[in-house]
Amino acid sequence: MSPIDEAARAARAGQELLQASGDVIARRLEIVSEALRDPSKADLRELTLMGSEKVEALTESATVGLNGAMSLAAQGGAIAARETAAARGALDAVVNARTPAEAAMAQGAWASAAMTRAMTDSWAMGAAMLKLQADALAPIHAAAVANARRLKK
Q1: pTM (2 d.p.)
Q2: 132 near 74, Cβ under 8 Å?
Q3: Which of 128, 96, 122, 92 is closest to 110 using CA atoms?
Q4: pLDDT tens digit string along 70-102?
Q5: SS3 15
Q6: Do 144 and 18 touch, CB atoms closer than 8 A?
Q7: What would the DSSP string read from start to end of 19-88?
């Protein structure tokens, strides 16, 4: 999925989450109010779900976020190692050049390739971060949307 598609997916999910959350909060406030008026008729199942569902969704979201952050860190480490090796190779080429022109060519080739890799890597990291945002939001979104459907009266 392209970075633009990931951003659109995250935006749609955010919009749906806001709408569903408002609906759920409004209905659950009614349930709490009804329970306060007449505790014997309280919807204990729903009152209990209010906390446990949040904990489950937030735990799943945090797990996705942590795993994604670790993956991004590993990706960053791999990029840093690759670039260190490329710079070392370029330095060797410059030091071992037989002429100043050959040294300049080696340096220019490294700089050009490094810029290309930096652009490619930045797009890939940006896309990975957008995907992570949408994936981390997904459990919370799913719970809120399911609750909104279930509580709709």
Answers
A1: 0.77
A2: no
A3: 92
A4: 999 999 999 999 999 999 999 999 999 999 999
A5: helix
A6: no
A7: HHHHHHHHHHHHHHHHHHH-GGG--HHHHHHHHHHHHHHHHHHHHHHHHHHHHHHHHHHHHHHHHHHHHH
Q: What is the pLDDT of residues 101-143, one digit of tens each?
A: 999 999 999 999 999 999 999 999 998 998 999 999 999 999 9
Q: Which of 143, 137, 142, 144 is nearest to 6 (CA)?
A: 137
* Residue carrying structure tokens 């939001």: 137
Are 57 and 45 contacting, i.e. CB atoms less than 8 angstroms apart?
Answer: no
139 in Cβ contact with 12 (< 8 Å): no
CA 47 to chain centre: 31
For 51, the token pair is 């906390």
Between CA 101 and CA 108, with CA 105 as vertex, the angle to 5 degrees is 135
